[in-house]
Structures are given as structure tokens and as C-alpha cells.
Amino acid sequence: MQTFGNKTMTIPLPTSTLEIEPFLDQLFKLCHNRKRADRIVDVFDFE
């Protein structure tokens, strides 16, 4: 069961200072989704 979409996420490294904020936003989004995915076993019974 996939709740959060694809299992992989590509986050390009910033090549300029203007790209740093969107890069960090993507990293935080990835961390948030990872934490939610780790807790999903507490919400659903997979047995």
C-alpha cells in the first residue's frame, strides 16, 4: 500500500544561492513524509 506516492524522490543539489531555499524545502518534505510513513504501522493493521 502506498500512501505517499512513489518510493523514490530525486532532489537536485542547488547550483546557486537562489536554489538553496527550495532545496531545503524538499529535504524537509522528504523528512516529514519519512516520519509519517514510519508511523503508518500504528494507524493500519497490516496483519
Helix/strand/pairing category: mainly alpha
Radius of gyration: 14 Å
Counted beta strands: 0
Approximately how much helix is present in the residues?
40-55%
What characterizes the major β-sheet?
Answer: none
Helix count?
1
General shape? elongated
The residue ranges in which pLDDT falls below 50 over 5 or more consecutive positions are none
Give average pLDDT, whole number. Answer: 82
Order of helices and strands: H
Span of the ends, CA to CA: 13 Å
Strand content: under 5%
Task: Map the helices and strands.
Elements: H1 20-43
Describe this structure in words.
With 47 residues, this protein is mostly helical. Helices cover 51% and strands 0% of the residues. The protein has one helix and no strands. The longest helix is centred in the C-terminal third of the chain and has 24 residues. The chain is elongated.
Q: Notable features of this structure?
A:
47 residues
Outline:
With 47 residues, the protein is an all-alpha fold. 51% of the residues lie in helices and 0% in strands.
